[in-house]
Amino acid sequence: MRILIANEALSGGGGVETYLATLVPALLAAGHEVGVLHDNPASEGGPQRIAPEGTWSTGVQDEGLDEAIARVRGFAPDACYSHNMRTLAIDARLVAEWPVVKFMHGHFGTCVSGQKAFGFPAIVGCTRSFGPGCLAHYLPRRCGQANPLVMMREYRWGSEQRSLFDRYRAIVVASRFMRDEYLAAGVAPDHVHAIPLFAPPHAAGARPDEGPRPIDVLFLGRMTRLKGPDVLVEAAGHASARLGRRLSVVFAWARWPRHGASTRGSRAGWRLRSAIGCCATPRSSPSRAVGPSRSGSSVSKGASSARRPSLSTRAVSRSG
Length: 320
Hints:
Layout: E1 2-7, E2 11-12, H1 15-29, E3 33-38, E4 48-49, E5 56-59, H2 60-63, H3 65-75, E6 79-82, H4 88-95, E7 100-103, E8 117-118, E9 124-125, H5 134-138, H6 148-163, E10 170-173, H7 176-184, E11 192-194, E12 215-221, H8 229-243, E13 247-253, H9 262-268, E14 272-276, E15 288-290, E16 311-317
Parallel strand pairs: 1-3, 1-6, 3-5, 6-7, 7-10, 10-11, 12-13, 12-15, 13-16, 14-16
Antiparallel strand pairs: 2-4, 8-9
């Protein structure tokens, strides 16, 4: 099968780029032919390239939308797999000519700001349906930037994304929580599919037969309050108690949120030690690398703190 991967960036440092950089080689190894349509310039750098060097590609900002689409016609994909795409005109052109499967990596078209949470008076998940009524909450409840122009721009973008829902051949999300989100937005049940994200194959030399051992959970990436570091630690305490095993949680982030995990830490029975300006390495390779979200896209919402779990945490920052 000839598959076109559409993503705004050819290289980057986010979770989407990491996912695609793992997926594309696997598709190639399975015998598929893969091409890439990207929006941002190919010269834009990043630590992760979503496809190996030499993969067929075309760029909208490099060549213009009409020329890029003409080149896609020459590539003649059997199907398109679209990911993050800020310029929705690209998706609109693709669905007009080819079957497009859209992976929704966030609350795109279901929330004005995409955060699906109120920020005031406290952070709490939002259960509203996307619509004009959201505009009454956006500024006073701090759903996004405190700027009415940004609010209206985001609302128009969300409306445009929403108008494409029925034109995609299918919508893919990473969890049942997110599937329920798109079902609530009116997407037909047979049109939206929950396919969990995957981890790279187990590293060579790993020895799962060694029996019980401490589990290292590494949070590595951009940190915000909405990613819920406190939820991760609370869930880790619960898991530690249930498994009867010491559970180590390591945070490596660019900037720790001002109101992060520390408020729940004392109740969960752990202490946070911050090592500023260095990089920590777990005692062994981490068996889990996670990026939790308060929206429920990658963390169970039902976790409760355990009674004095055998849990240790470390926090490592590059910029304090």
